[in-house]
Amino acid sequence: MATPAQPDFGILLALAYQKFVRDLRGHLAEQGFDDLGRSDGFVFRALGTHPMSISELAGRLEVTKQAAAQIVDDMQRRGYVRRTPDPNDRRAQRLELTDRGTTALATARRFHQRYERRLTRDHGAPAMDALRGVLDAIAGGPDETVDPHLRAMYL
Questions:
Q1: pTM of the full predicted structure?
Q2: Model confidence over 73-96: pLDDT tens digits?
Q3: Predicted confidence (pLDDT) per residue in 3-44, tens digit
Q4: Rg of the chain over CA atoms, in angstroms?
Q5: Whole-angstrom Cα distance, residue 1 to residue 24?
Q6: What span, in angstroms and rounded, lies between the C-alpha atoms of 41 and 47?
Q7: Torsion of CA 31, 36, 41, 43, to 10 degrees
Q8: CA 118 → CA 21, 23, 112, 113, distances in Å?
Q9: Cα(155)–Cα(45) distance, rounded to whole angstroms?
């Protein structure tokens, strides 16, 4: 239970997340990815599994096709995503990560791994296992995640 000198638990979670995101964005910028947008990570993860259509991406992110197309247009302009002909339907296009997009995703994933290893080193494996267990219980899995962008990362 929080005392007057301690932030409420929800605030502490939010502050920890904000710090993580600042550190991640700073690392990515140092690696040459200083032009990333707020939705890019969700698209990287979605397309990192396999190419998909705008409709599939929109469904994964639970946004309209128009919103997904705007995000993809911007990412394509910045060199992270490309459109290729769908081999099964000449009228359709598939979205896939470019080499730059694949490298950005791999760089972010390495950061995640190093961050967790550092926390484990600083606080011990039992503490990290407990923290992961608590966070997993709070998150409730993909069916309970409210934000569709975050839900998309479970898939």
A1: 0.83
A2: 999 999 999 999 988 888 889 999
A3: 667 889 999 999 999 999 999 999 999 999 999 998 899 999
A4: 18
A5: 30
A6: 10
A7: -120
A8: 16, 13, 10, 9
A9: 9
Q: Is 140 exposed, middle or buried (0-12, 13-18, 19+ CB in 10 A)?
A: exposed
Q: Largest Cα–Cα distance in the chain?
A: 63
- Residue 76's contacts (CB-CB under 8 Å, 6 or more residues apart) are 82, 83
Give DSSP secondary structure letters for 25-59.
HHHHHHTT-TT--TTHHHHHHHHHH--B-HHHHHH
Pull the structure tokens for residue 58. Answer: 């929109």
Report the DSSP beta bridge partners of residue 82: 96
Q: By the 8 A CB rule, do 44 and 101 touch?
A: yes
d(CA 41, CA 58): 14
Q: How far is the C-alpha of 103 from the C-alpha of 19, rounded, in Å?
A: 23
Q: State the burial class of residue 91 (Cβ atoms within 10 Å of its Cβ: 0-12, 13-18, 19+).
A: exposed
What pairs with residue 95 in β-bridges?
A: 52, 83
Q: Which tokens is 23 given?
A: 């550190």
